[in-house]
């Protein structure tokens, strides 16, 4: 059985409040990411439960590159639209757009867009992956494009997992000698969080949106420490969810600068987890991503970013890899701009 795409879409909205924003009134990128994931989870779970059999919950496994096109401010209404755009046998792609509305003037702007991948897990057995009901496509071309995206993300997930197996070292000791300003060690930051019931899904695993919010907070601290100015999230490269994080786990979210251009900072954010009660369980890598931040002046205009001082060979390797990603993304942006003209 297949269902039309129109039945596989959802819109949620809410007004942005002061506790959603940073000290200058911009809504935290992590709040937007959390809303995006909630919409994706709802539409994905609803779609996967239209068929007979065990009930299931859509679990987030990957978020493609996410662009933060315009900031969202306190008092604006965020309209989050999620639509299922591709289904394979055991996964589905959800594309999400965030429109910010000024309810005083009626003006609207496209603030964010993202693509997320989910797999449906049985409520009876979280390790059992359920079949995904197929959707109807408006054309064979759209189906082929979706299939290409599916194959590409599957390959990238394998490559990423092979690259990030090493668990991060412990957070720096406050009693250690201070690091030199504008070095990787100076701005590197960690956040430790105990996963409680309010963080979790029906499976008692942490919501993907909760994790992404923590990651954005840590990346923001790293960026602010490096340039000592107002900073905002500009984009997020693919977020890969490697392993589930259970209720009762302690997660360590660590961010470190990998690359700095004239006006942007790339920050690698890694999430490691371990059980608080199972002493035998070793710490494991759960999530990884690269966040890009920019520095702003008091008028929200981009500022130059202090250069990154490289101290170690490993830091130079990560810097070179970040530079390659920066140039690749720059080419993609220019190509997209030309297509739109």
TrEMBL record:
Q: Could you tell me the Gene Ontology terms of the biological process aspect for this record?
A: acyl-CoA metabolic process; fatty acid catabolic process
Per UniProt, subcellular location reads as: Cytoplasm
Which InterPro entries does the record match to this protein?
A: Cytosol_ACT, HOTDOG_ACOT, HotDog_dom_sf, Thioestr_dom
Q: Give the annotated active site.
A: 22, 216
Q: Where does the HotDog ACOT-type domain lie?
A: 6-124, 185-299
Instruction: Name the keywords, alphabetized.
Output: Cytoplasm, Hydrolase, Lipid metabolism, Repeat, Serine esterase
What GO molecular-function term can you cite, just one? long-chain fatty acyl-CoA hydrolase activity
Q: EC no.?
A: 3.1.2.2
What is the main EC category here? hydrolase
UniProt-listed Pfam families: 4HBT
Task: Spell out the GO cellular component terms annotated for this protein, sorted alphabetically and separated by semicolons.
Answer: cytosol
Query: What PANTHER family does its record include?
Result: ACYL COENZYME A THIOESTER HYDROLASE, CYTOSOLIC ACYL COENZYME A THIOESTER HYDROLASE
Protein name in the entry: palmitoyl-CoA hydrolase
Which organism does this sequence originate in?
Cottoperca gobio
């Amino acid at each position: 059985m297949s269902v039309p795409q129109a039945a596989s879409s959802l819109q949620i909205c809410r007004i942005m409040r002061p506790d959603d924003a940073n000290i200058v009134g911009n809504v935290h990128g992590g709040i937007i990411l959390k809303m995006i994931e909630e919409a994706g989870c709802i539409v994905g779970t609803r779609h996967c439960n239209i068929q007979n059999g065990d009930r299931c919950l859509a679990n987030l496994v990957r978020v493609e590159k996410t662009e933060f096109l315009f900031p969202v401010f306190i008092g604006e209404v965020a309209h989050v639209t999620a639509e299922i755009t591709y289904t394979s046998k055991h996964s589905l792609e959800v594309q999400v757009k965030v429109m910010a509305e000024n309810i005083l003037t009626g003006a609207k702007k496209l603030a964010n867009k993202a693509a997320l991948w989910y797999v449906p897990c049985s409520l009876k057995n979280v390790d059992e992956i359920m079949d995904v009901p197929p959707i109807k496509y408006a054309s064979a071309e759209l189906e082929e494009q979706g299939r290409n995206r599916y194959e590409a993300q599957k390959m990238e997930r394998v490559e990423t997992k092979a690259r990030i197996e090493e668990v991060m070292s412990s957070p720096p000791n406050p009693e250690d000698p201070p690091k030199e300003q504008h070095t990787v060690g100076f701005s590197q930051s960690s956040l430790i969080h105990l996963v409680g019931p309010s963080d979790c899904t029906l499976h008692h695993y942490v919501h993907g949106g909760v994790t992404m919010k923590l990651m954005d907070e840590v990346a923001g601290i790293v960026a602010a420490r490096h340039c000592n100015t107002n900073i905002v999230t500009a984009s997020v490269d693919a977020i890969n969810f490697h392993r589930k994080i259970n209720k009762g786990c302690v997660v360590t979210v660590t961010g470190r600068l990998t690359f700095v251009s004239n006006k942007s900072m790339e920050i690698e954010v890694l999430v490691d987890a371990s059980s608080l009660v199972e002493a035998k369980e070793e710490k494991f890598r759960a999530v990884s991503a690269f966040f890009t931040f920019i520095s702003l002046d008091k008028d929200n205009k981009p500022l130059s970013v202090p250069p990154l001082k490289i101290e170690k060979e490993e830091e130079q390797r990560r810097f070179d890899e970040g530079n390659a990603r920066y140039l690749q993304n720059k080419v993609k942006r220019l190509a997209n701009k030309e297509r739109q003209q």
